[in-house]
Amino acid sequence: MIPLKRIAQDDGEVQMNRLTDDTACKRRLTYTIRNNIQEPTFEYSLAIRFCRQPFIRIMEKAVNKNRSFMFSATYFPKLGYFIDAINGVRGFYNVNKTWWAFLKAPDTMLPVGVSSYYPADGDHIIFNFTQSSGH
Ligand code: B12
């Protein structure tokens, strides 16, 4: 059994990690949530340090830093989590074609969802509240 090491991260969060993990967590990204289409509009960004992990884990870290990043999601077989709402703003695709698009800045639609996308160092990831048919 690999021993556990207690690690205090720069944001004060304390985690138990296996020594074999990338405990340095040296990668950094910028995470932006943007709603330009519905009142109250908002745009917030956070700089986050991370290890190799799917983006949904980084969304959890963001919530721990700032409640504006709170989200809700639905788990689908094989595809993982679909993000329904962020910061209290919910997409109603079937009603008015609104949904949260998952982008790499400035405007590249990511080909997979938050459970499958492993961000790279220096990424700028955007959740943009969108009104459009399909993707
Ligand atoms: C319609 C559709 C959408 C609609 C769904 C809304 C709706 N109520 O219809 C909208 C436009 C919102 C959408 C969004 C996204 N989608 Co889409 N979508 C589809 C599509 C074309 C059909 C799904 C469908 O209706 N199936 C039939 C119904 C009966 O089955 P179902 O299981 O109930 O379908 C649901 C899920 O598929 C879910 N859903 C749709 N997209 C996604 C994506 C993810 C990651 C998850 C977990 C669930 C999910 O919504 C459907 C309706 O409830 C599929 C391609 C395909 N042909 O399957 C892509 C597809 C599932 N989507 C895909 C992607 C990548 C996305 C996005 C991540 C794109 C982005 N970068 O923003 C976003 C999700 C972002 C988020 N908020 O989490 C990929 C998933 C690939 C993968 N392995 O992860 C697919 C396979 C298309 C592709 N080949 O690239 N999508």
TrEMBL record:
<dbReference type="InterPro" id="IPR027954">
    <property type="entry name" value="Transcobalamin-like_C"/>
</dbReference>
<feature type="domain" description="Transcobalamin-like C-terminal">
    <location>
        <begin position="60"/>
        <end position="130"/>
    </location>
</feature>
<dbReference type="Pfam" id="PF14478">
    <property type="entry name" value="DUF4430"/>
</dbReference>
<protein>
    <recommendedName>
        <fullName>Transcobalamin-like C-terminal domain-containing protein</fullName>
    </recommendedName>
</protein>
<dbReference type="InterPro" id="IPR051588">
    <property type="entry name" value="Cobalamin_Transport"/>
</dbReference>
